[in-house]
Amino acid sequence: FAPCTSLTSIATSAASRPSRVASSDSTRRAPGPAAPGAKGMAGSRRNASARASLENLLSGPQISGQQWNLQVPMRNTEGRELWFRVRAETEPDALGQLRVVGTLQDVTGVRALRAEIQRNADLLRGAIDAIDEAFVLYDPEDRLVFCNDKYLQIYATSRDLLVPGARFEDIIRQGVARGQYPAARGREEEWIEQRLRAHREAT
What one-character DSSP code corresponds to residue 167? Predict the structure, then answer.
């Protein structure tokens, strides 16, 4: 993560509505060098969406100690979109009115990395789905990670059980109860134990 900077300070009135929005110096510098006369994140026209997100936070009733954690888009003077995580909390000021203070953190790189990971995962899934063979993957705790369409077609009776995070034993036991495995009829527990043993030995 990029270093945190102090967040826009938002003072609220006794009626719990925003009365003014003011940016700290570090907040104004967060998106990059500002053009002459720029008003920072809170007042810049190019960051209207960020301002709207912050004002939306204060649109409802506020109480002391209320917390927020959200991400808002901003643009620097070069027009590049950046993403910042806003962590904020309400607190009373010297006059007893509520204000919002917190931190602002650049998470643009983190979001880009996560997007790249998701793209790679989608590509991998597409490649596995294209294989004309059943494919299934379990994690070290025997929980389902992924299975392709061919596998779902073969085990159609248990299709709704084949979701990420499902335990192998639970899938097998419920599949037996539904008649998914003809070989288990009349010897259900014996068949289940054999299937579990074969699965463990294979992994």
Answer: B
